[in-house]
Amino acid sequence: MSIQIAQEGDLYTAEVTPPHGQWRSPYPMRAGELLVALRSIGCSQTDIDEAIREVTTLRTRRLWEEEITPTVHAALSGEYEVPAQPPRTEALLAYALFLGESPLALSAIVDTVDFTYRLVPTPDEIAWAFLRLRRREWLAQQGNLYGLTVEGRRAIEDIVGEGSALDRIERLEAWTLAHPPPGDR
Amino acid sequence: MFPGVPTKGRVAVVGDDMGRVEAFTKRYGYEYFNEYAPPGRRIAATRNWINARMDQGYTIVDIGPAPGRQFYPYPTGRYYRVELLEIGNRNYERYLPMWGMIN
Hints:
The structure holds two protein chains of two kinds.
Chain A: E1 3-8, E2 11-16, E3 23-24, H1 31-40, H2 45-76, H3 88-99, E4 104-105, H4 106-117, H5 123-135, E5 139-142, E6 145-148, H6 150-160, H7 165-178
Antiparallel strand pairs in A: 1-2, 2-3, 4-6, 5-6
Helix pairs in contact in A: 2-5, 3-4, 3-5, 3-7
Chain B: E1 11-14, H1 18-28, E2 31-32, H2 42-55, E3 59-62, H3 78-89, E4 95-97
Helix pairs in contact in B: 2-3
């Protein structure tokens, strides 16, 4: 990486090293101001995007490690009883798993939900959705990676059909509402 | 649209939580982000989408952060923040923030 961005509260600093040049932000800046500064010294948007992705991943990794992962593990092992969550949550998480071609880390699953639905699910929402998917025998777990069983993927493929992401999520939500998982009736 | 707000008929809506955004847009027939991109292309896809709307002179209605989410009253989602950054960077004149008005 030739652009290194660091976050300090709501402000950011950056250091640019060759081949992009030699530059250091003179003071902590707001995100928009830093973007303008990086563009003004000739950094490409692709490289800026990558640097932003790195810093936001670092920031959220602590959240995964300290809050989300323990909650999901505790819920799946029966040590924590998750309160009921909004019904659409199951469809959002199921669709994110459906889009992953292989088992995914929680951070990747959350990123997909955020991208497709502009919503960052809470630890309880993730855990609640995973429990429901497991009761349907749709959830496959490999350590800290999560995916769909063959049956789950096939079922979701039939339910969502073709169309935009939001149309498909809407169909999946309608189906999950009409077909509660075993033990939920 | 709201009386007195010129839109030239083209409006895109942004905000945390597509459930809110979609409900709002369906009432008026506005546009909203509804695309897919693989990991690694998502920031660029988001940036391209919002910039394309601004290039075409859309009015951008921003219904703001979703009540009850993690960082409320600030934005929670990464991709919504990318949209806000792009709008702010251009100091876009057809930007209509409606934070706190839509649950």
